């Protein structure tokens, strides 16, 4: 993961599309929570299909 150090150091706000794999929402939250325990996570769905689901880490 090339951005791991940057995320740990700078703790940027992130918007990540999580509709590619069923396990993405859970696995990405778990991974980011290990890197930055202070992150709060929000998910927003923008369409009626499975597409356009975005995870926010702030």
From TrEMBL:
InterPro entries found in the cross-reference section: SAM-dependent_MTases_sf
Domain of life from the UniProt record: Bacteria
Name by which UniProt lists this protein: Uncharacterized protein
Native species: Roseburia faecis
